[in-house]
Give the backbone structure.
Amino acid sequence: MVSPVVLLAVPLGLALCVPLVGMASRKAAGFVPVAASLFNLVVSVGLLPDALEEPIVANLGGFAPPFAITLFAGPVGVLLSALVALAGLAVSLYALSYISEGPTIRYHTLYTLLLVGATGVVLTGDVFNLFVFFEILCISSYALVAYVGDRAGTEASIKYLIQGALGSALLLIGIGLLYGLFGTLNMADIAARMGSVDPGPVFVAMVLIITGLGVEAAIFPLNAWLPDAHSSAPSSISAMLSGIAIEVGLYAVVRMVFTVFGASSMLMFLVFMGLLTLLVGELCAFAQSNIKRMLAYSSIGQMGLIVFALALATVHSVTGGLFQLVSHTLSKALLFLAVGYMVYRSGSMEISSLEGMGRRMPLTSFAFTVGAFSLVGLPPFIGFPSKFLIVRSALAEQGVLLQVLVGLLLAATVVEGAYFLRVIQTVYFKKGRQQEARREAPAVALFSMFVFVVLIVVIGVYPNLISNALESGASELLERADYVRSVLG
Amino acid sequence: MIIVVSLLVLAMLAAAVAALVYRDLLSAVIASCLVSLLASILFLFLQAPDVAMAEASIGAALVTAIFVITIRRTKRYEE
Amino acid sequence: MSFLHDYVYYIGAFGLVAVGLLILLVKRNLIKLIIGLSILDTGVNMLLISVGYITGGTAPIFSRPGLSEGGMVDPVPQALVLTAIVIGVAILALALGLAVRFYKNCGTLDLRTAKELKW
Amino acid sequence: MRLAVGLILLAVIGVGIAVSLGGIPFGAPKTVIGDHYVDSARDDTGATNVVTSVVVGYRAFDTLGEVTVLFVAALGLGAVLAAAGGGGGRSGVEPASLILRVGNAFLFPLILLFGAYIFSHGHLTPGGGFQGGAIIASAFLLVYLSSPGKRISATRARATESLSGLVFVVVGLLGLTLGAHNFLANFLPKGVPNTLFSAGIIPVVYCAIGLKVGSELAGVVDGLMEETG
């Protein structure tokens, strides 16, 4: 069994090699992220059986737990790092053809480092180490959003950077207060000492930390940057930001709330925030005429749904939330990849300009349709079992309030269905003004899209493939005592 | 001792406020450089020589330099 | 006097955080915002270091052989702040690069003129 | 309006932080891990500067992440500025005065030496890779100011960045295979405390950090000065 640290060290080493490889051959540089994410995928999948049995804890530098930085590779960590690697692999293949202009070597380096940052956040068991990897993730995102260097991209990146930097400053204040109060930075150690400290100051630290992380997780009042950033970035980066970055931010929030603070008082608040985020996101998405902005708002809505499910904090609902997280990653990444080439061919991001795409790019349009149906929650795609699980677990709870909330959730799904069907109708059933020749996306890009299509359908038909792993992930998130025990012994 | 520290803190805050109110970006940058410099002296009083060195060499010197370079390439006054 | 002794560093740190946040909230000039970020960072660093201070402690360096271990200030916040300073510079550098880019695209540093941004 | 909202927000944050700081009295001894580090750092890592033994010993993984952050920012800056095609010289910079040029020719090697001293003695005295790197970068800044036409070789700077980063990662991976079988474990002999060749991997890692930080910060300055037209 290898140490989970190779999941971070090897891709980081490879990322540092990209400029050296790029000096020899510009083309070869694009294959480094492919190699890095392939390596991570293989190692994560290899670690999964062990992690499901018992979380793998690595103390870096060979010091005892509270004194060293701890990596905690439990079911959630390994699953998410596998998910990051999988999406990273497909998107890096896509980028081989999609990213052909500009400083490509820098793109590939930054992209690999984005994967490192995301993997680090999901694996670390140390509060300050979380901050460091979070910054790697955020700063590489800021830079990649502005990759094209056009006006919209630069503006979106600045907006993202200012809000993100403000968030990280609050996060750092929170971490400083936490250290002052507990005298330790290890998550398990903090969790173990939680009862011994006055709750008032701890609450302040928690609010600061959640606000700081919430900027990246795009929880409702903190998500002003998201539609601009996700719509102005190159499509491969939009796929990663929507599919990986915000999920990882959300994971960090959830890890903090569940494991470190064990804050049951926050949960009802988060349920409401989640639902509010869902409604705002879906309604804004409905009003968009720009396809990428529509997808970006839809990401906000989906994040709200996941927050809602996770904050209900029962084993079933958390399983549903994690399932929805996986489903959103696969579907939204697929949608952005498909839209990337549609927009590239039609030259405009307006939905109306996609008329006739069903004939011009049949395979890409098919991939788009699969992603859209899956996101709406239609069978036999992966979105169906995940949404079903969330609704069922929410209804299993007693209380009229929750049933009203579920009603709102279903209404939001209807809105979601409406705007996606509108796009699909435009793609297939409206004739384009000028009949252009059929011109598909390049083979590599189609291959990466169909990786997602196959996964969406296969997991949609056989949800049991991952639901057991997700369930043990859910119990890992909910059982604080087990987490503390497996780190501190 | 405590008087000196208080005066330094006061000066640091005054420099920060100056950075807030100056319309001339170059002056604001110099004021923020002063904030870093005074902060690094305070770090020294707080028995953190490593941090003081880092703050003085990075925070006060290099950051100010890249700010000034940027202002040269853009605009000096806030409108 | 004892009030000053107990709180002067906290006041300084908190004052910097407040001024930094205020700049971020009310100013719309890009360079000014970045200056705000830098002041905010300094304030946060100050806060962390003050949290680790121990009255009468010495710097955590065994520079003389006879120096005892008792009464050294906490080294952890100092290590964290070293990290935080470098991260802060990284963000500032990227932000300034974006500012140059923004100026080249729009001919101004005022974010109110940016068409896509609703602040 | 905006000012009012801002002030209210600020007041809320202020009260929160003040409440929280009330729970952390200034100057009181409090942390368990801080005491542990002070007590056992010399035996664990061999460095006499406890901050260094935390930065490059106990929490070395943070430091690896941190140099990565700087790497990301330097790359990102290059990508952002290069997006619309780079090239061209530096316009609008007048040639420097004689004093600056002559002084710089004299000072440049001294500053480099000073920077190298700072990062190679990080385990003994205050200072280390970041401070030393910043000093090296400021030497290059001086070169840019005194002779505006001069450029450092981008290829060489990038190679320094990558190679010194790789040294860090490889030292970490060696720790995983040799010695204690832990990433970034200190597998070299710790030597006699308070001598230059002590503390195992710490001076090696700090030298790598110094070179990396120096070349990256110099790259940042260079990137911002370059006129992209």
